[in-house]
Task: inverse folding
């Protein structure tokens, strides 16, 4: 055993370095906690905090419930049953992730508005005047709908993979004991997939908590609003950072508590080839019920908004300059590609360290990387700019030795943006990789090392091949997320660096949702393609 | 700590190597154009890009752009400090230029051409920023339910008779903040607060959506009057969506406070960043943008009012008539911005 821990040292050091470098840009934000209260603090406390926190809580809570219900039920239907199009839906249900929530928010409110397709059809074709109350989506329930529809794939993806690969024996036993499908779902499926569901839903909650695009347009005041009103409206960035820091502390506490509570209840299988869940072919009304339900969700979360976007695309065709689009596509691909590869590589290292780590610190440390995902992007952007300018100053003599006349080199290059993505989305990739490690357990690796292979050799020869599925789904999630990322890309890009997301935002932010359809559709198409390709790879893995 | 730095550096170099293709091409672009000017802008209109391209064509000076949100760009400039590559900060709202000046990130620029093309009231008194276009924040009304005679001032919309009939977007929006800031400057804090309170009482619904959505809500019968920017109305009248055009056609435009303090105007403009490395080019760009040709383009393509008095507004805007503007110094909009936000919060204007 002593020998094992000796080998682990290199991994430990590397992992600690990775985690610390991800956390280092957050230092100024954490420092913000200690900053003295500004004169605005009383005002913020009295008029903003209480109400805004309540709204944030409502949004997070109902979205969490919604995504759990939809994500888990879809995962179960797809994993266990066969019905029309179920093979298509298996991957198509990930597609809603490709639509940026703020674009979805604009699209839905556009469709539901007085000039939208629904009301104009009723008015012009059927001559039916309608009560506007029923068509107003720009409110808290509307925002919950948008978040639920466009974020549930986080829960769906993770839970479905888990159920497909892990649930068979337990479900079989339950069946033998004579339990019906509903009882199995509630008594077996939900409890055993708890960890997977929590993993997915915590990403959803964080995304809701730090979102600003949807709530800003819908006029809903959340904790993010408080941060930005303090910064933009009151011009008090220190107080804004302090608010963000409190949010971050809260999130980290929740996660650590969750991890500590769950830490001891891990189970690993000695065999990765657990029998896959045998599919049950549905018949009769059950068949059409399942099909109808899944189709309804797919339409609401993907097909309808996409058709609307295509309609706008056609209406505005030729109205906006589109000769630069290949450049935007290339830029989007470039930054998303590099960042996702780096994130997954880092996650593999940290994850490998984590599973052998003795003690709670080792188990909990990687969880801290989630701070990058827990606060609004614009606040992270400030932290990243600060770090890079500091870095550039430190490297100043190096630059002049190279004969560069500029003092800002890294911070005016695309490197700053890519690092920002890594800091922000590391948790997404890590989440996927960690659950992959959880799944394969430690037995194979221990066996390999018992037979004399080093940790590093084991990592490449045993762990990576076993982790292929997790690697692919991690890459996919991170890539799709970066394609649609907005505040970081806007603030941290170098001169003349446009991506599809910045273009989409520029039009949407100026209330030109019709013009925004063009870049949005390209984002959706490219992400859909990525999802499809990754899915095919994943499927091959499953089939092995 | 050293190790950590080393790792970050290695990581950075690795990334730099990986991303060579893009950064190199950007550098190449710079080297082909010997002259350049660097712009941080929160205006992101296609018409701006067209004008920049034209400028490059005429002068050989390349315009490099980072477009983002104004406060975030301002923060980036602040943190970059003296080393910043930005020459100009171009914003859609003058309050932000004032804030930039207060933060000490701007410096003066002297140019007789600018002084001639841009009237004094649209410039900073120390010539640190220059207004380039303006939009009026007007009252639009449902032609069927409201007669223009019923309308008079912004203040009147806060009175009893408009209970449940007024539409306006959320207070988070900078145009609303500037509007209230102007009232604070003109009437004092107390009256401004009373106005905001009265408005909240008269709301037809909780504020939601953007300016265009307020116009649609009038068409839908949710309210009878709305406060919105002329710029957005111009976009709607000329929309690609025939339904939006129909909505816009049923709206009347009313310039409030003509007998009293004048209609509120937002100015969009650019400030000279302190230590600008391409200051001369930046001045040339400002001169170009405030000259008749570019001002005409702003007017025709973007429905903004030109600041250059030699240039007429777009025909559509002219059809709404001439109007008297508020006469306060524009810097007051910046001074009173945070007060305005506090008032909004106090009266519960979402």
Result:
């Amino acid at each position: 055993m002593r020998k094992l821990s000796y080998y682990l040292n290199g991994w430990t050091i590397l992992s600690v370095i990775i985690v610390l470098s991800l956390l280092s840009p957050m230092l100024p934000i954490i420092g913000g906690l200690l900053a003295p209260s500004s004169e605005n603090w009383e005002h913020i406390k009295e008029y903003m905090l209480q109400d805004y926190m309540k709204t944030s809580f409502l949004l997070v809570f109902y979205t969490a419930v919604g995504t759990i219900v939809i994500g888990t039920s879809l995962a179960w239907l797809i994993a266990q049953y066969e019905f029309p199009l179920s093979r298509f839906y298996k991957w198509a249900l990930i597609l809603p992730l490709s639509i940026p929530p703020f674009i979805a928010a604009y699209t839905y409110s556009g469709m539901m508005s007085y000039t939208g397709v629904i009301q104009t059809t009723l008015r012009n074709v059927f001559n039916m005047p309608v009560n506007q109350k029923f068509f107003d989506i720009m409110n808290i329930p509307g925002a919950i709908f948008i978040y639920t529809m466009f974020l549930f794939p986080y829960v769906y993806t993770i839970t479905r993979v888990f159920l497909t690969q892990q649930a068979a024996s337990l479900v079989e036993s339950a069946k033998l004991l004579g339990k019906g499908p509903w009882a199995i779902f509630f008594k077996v499926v939900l409890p055993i997939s708890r960890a997977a569901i929590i993993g997915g839903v915590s990403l959803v909650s964080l995304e809701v908590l730090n979102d600003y695009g949807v709530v800003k347009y819908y006029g809903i005041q959340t904790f993010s609003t408080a941060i930005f009103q303090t910064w933009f409206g009151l011009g008090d960035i220190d107080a804004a950072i302090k608010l963000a820091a409190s949010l971050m502390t809260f999130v980290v506490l929740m996660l650590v508590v969750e991890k500590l509570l769950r830490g001891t209840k891990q189970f690993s299988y000695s065999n990765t080839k657990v029998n896959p869940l045998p599919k049950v072919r549905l018949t009769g009304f059950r068949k059409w019920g399942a099909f109808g339900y899944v189709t309804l969700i797919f339409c609401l979360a993907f097909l309808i908004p996409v058709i609307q976007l295509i309609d706008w695309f056609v209406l505005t065709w030729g109205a906006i300059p589109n000769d630069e689009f290949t450049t935007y596509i290339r830029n989007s691909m470039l930054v998303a590609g590099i960042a996702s590869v780096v994130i997954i590589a880092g996650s593999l290292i940290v994850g490998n360290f984590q599973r052998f780590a003795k003690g709670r610190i080792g188990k909990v440390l990687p969880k801290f990387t989630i701070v990058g995902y827990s606060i609004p992007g614009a606040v992270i952007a400030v932290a990243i700019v600060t770090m890079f300018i500091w870095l550039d100053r430190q490297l100043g003599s190096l630059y002049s030795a190279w004969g560069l006349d500029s003092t800002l080199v890294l911070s005016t290059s695309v490197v700053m943006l890519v690092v920002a993505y890594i800091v922000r989305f590391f948790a997404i990739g890590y989440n996927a990789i960690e659950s992959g490690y959880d799944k394969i357990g430690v037995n194979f690796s221990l066996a390999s090392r018992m037979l004399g292979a080093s940790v590093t050799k084991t990592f490449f020869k045993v762990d990576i091949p076993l982790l292929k599925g997790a690697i692919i789904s991690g890459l996919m999630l991170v890539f799709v997320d970066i394609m649609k990322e907005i505040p970081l890309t806007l603030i941290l890009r170098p001169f003349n660096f446009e991506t599809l997301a910045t273009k989409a935002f520029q039009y949407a932010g100026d209330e030109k949702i019709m013009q925004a359809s063009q870049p949005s559709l390209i984002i959706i198409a490219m992400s859909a393609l990525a999802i499809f390709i990754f899915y095919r790879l994943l499927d091959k893995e499953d089939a092995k | 700590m050293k190790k950590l730095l080393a790792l970050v550096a290695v990581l950075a170099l690795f990334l730099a190597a990986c991303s060579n293709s893009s950064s190199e091409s950007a550098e190449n672009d710079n080297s082909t154009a010997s002259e350049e000017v660097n712009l941080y802008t929160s205006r992101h209109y296609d018409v701006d890009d067209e004008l920049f391209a034209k400028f490059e064509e005429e002068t050989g000076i390349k315009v490099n752009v980072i477009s983002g949100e104004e406060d975030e760009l301002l923060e980036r400039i602040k943190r970059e400090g003296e080393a910043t590559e930005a020459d100009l900060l171009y914003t859609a709202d003058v309050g932000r230029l004032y804030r930039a000046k207060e933060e000490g990130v701007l410096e003066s620029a002297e140019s007789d051409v600018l002084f001639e093309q841009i009237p004094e009231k649209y410039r900073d008194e120390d010539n640190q920023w220059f207004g380039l276009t303006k939009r009026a924040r007007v009252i639009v009304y449902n032609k069927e339910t409201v007669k223009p005679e019923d309308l008079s001032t912004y203040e009147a919309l806060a009175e009893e008779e408009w209970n449940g009939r007024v539409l306006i977007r959320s207070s988070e929006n900078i145009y609303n903040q500037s509007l209230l800031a102007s009232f604070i400057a003109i009437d004092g804090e107390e009256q401004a607060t009373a106005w905001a309170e009265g408005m909240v009482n008269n709301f037809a619904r909780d504020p939601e959506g953007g300016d265009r959505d307020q116009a649609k809500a009038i068409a839908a019968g949710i309210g009878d009057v709305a406060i919105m920017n002329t710029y957005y109305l111009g976009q709607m009248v000329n929309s690609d969506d025939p339904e939006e055009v129909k909505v816009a056609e049923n709206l009347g435009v009313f310039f409030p406070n003509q007998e009293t303090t004048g209609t509120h105007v937002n100015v969009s403009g650019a400030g000279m960043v302190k230590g600008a490395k391409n200051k001369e080019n930046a001045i040339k760009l400002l001169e170009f943008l405030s000259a008749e040709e570019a001002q005409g383009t702003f007017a025709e393509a973007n429905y903004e009012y030109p600041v250059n008095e030699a240039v007429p507004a777009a025909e559509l805007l002219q059809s709404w008539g001439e109007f008297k503007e508020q006469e306060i110094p524009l810097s007051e909009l910046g001074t009173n911005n945070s007060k305005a936000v506090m008032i909004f919060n106090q009266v519960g204007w979402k």
Summary: The two ends of chain B are 46 Å apart (CA to CA). The domain at 135-264+322-347 of chain B is CATH 3.40.190.10 (D-Maltodextrin-Binding Protein; domain 2). Confidence is low (pLDDT under 50) at residues 1-8, 13-33 of chain B.
